[in-house]
Amino acid sequence: MLKRLLKTIAIAQPSLPCLKTPVLLLLLTASYSSSAQKPNWHFFEAQYLDATIDERLDADGYAVTGAYALFSDVFIIAQYEALEVEYKLDDSFSNADINRYFIGLGYNYEFNEFTEFYAILALKNIDYQSRGNKADNDGYAATLGLRSFVAEKIELNIYYTYLDIDYDKSLDYWGAIAEDSNETGITGLYHISKNVSLGLGFKESEGYEQTSVSIKYHF
Questions:
Q1: What ranges in the chain are assigned the alpha helix state H?
Q2: Nearest to residue 159, comparing CAs of 182, 191, 126, 125?
Q3: pTM of the model
Q4: Domain spans of the chain?
Q5: Whole-angstrom Cα distance, residue 42 to residue 217?
Q6: CATH architecture of 2-156+171-179+192-218
Q7: Which is the most buried residue in 35, 98, 195, 204, by most CB within 10 A?
Q8: In degrees rounded to 5, what are phi and psi of residue 111?
């Protein structure tokens, strides 16, 4: 499984030109952040989510995320996400409920005082329900990311996630909505105090775009 994961990430790298400029910006700007804070992995976060599926279906919901550092360079992280999708079928409107959660183990490496690379390997579960159809799917996710304080109160997080979800192909449409493709994303945080920050994020995968606003408590 590890060999397949590394091979997939290696193949995907050339297809991510949209991340090259932000990554370089993070590395260059961080060197001038004389009084910035350091990224940490002790936090609790609540998000409001707004998503578009296949450019025609709207979804919204929420997510809660928590992380805790076990050691200086090892942490655990977990997230629960709930989305509701409204769609039209047979000249009537219906709803689909999608719930996703993961729990993972992460490793972070300090590039400099204000910037760090990180990697997360997580077990992921996705279940969805629509018009009596139910499915419960398991898989894993592997994330590579970069976090940096580019100014005293501004933190940026850029990441790429490889997803491998075994979903019921007899419900292929909802399986695609539930996720079975790779993700790229960026999040910006404004730290209004030592313990509280406000965030705005965007992520996308094949046929899926999601915007989020968040409040994060650091402890």
A1: 2-12, 20-30, 172-178
A2: 182
A3: 0.80
A4: 2-156+171-179+192-218
A5: 9
A6: Beta Barrel (2.40)
A7: 98
A8: -75, -45
For the record, the structure tokens of 196 come out as 């509280």
Is the CB of residue 59 less than 8 Å from the CB of residue 84? yes
Handedness of CA 197, 185, 103, 81 (dihedral sign): positive
50 class by beta-carbon count within 10 Å (0-12 exposed, 13-18 middle, 19+ buried): middle
Q: Is 15 exposed, middle or buried (0-12, 13-18, 19+ CB in 10 A)?
A: exposed
pLDDT by residue for the chain (219 residues), tens only, comes to: 434 433 443 444 444 444 444 444 444 444 444 445 788 999 999 999 999 887 778 899 999 999 999 999 999 999 999 999 887 666 667 788 989 999 999 999 998 889 999 999 999 998 888 777 787 888 999 999 999 999 989 999 999 999 888 766 555 555 445 455 789 999 999 999 999 999 999 999 888 899 999 999 999
Angle at the Cα of 107 from the Cα atoms of 162 and 200, rounded to 5 degrees:
65
Length in residues, the chain: 219
Q: How many CB atoms lie within 10 A of CB 22?
A: 15
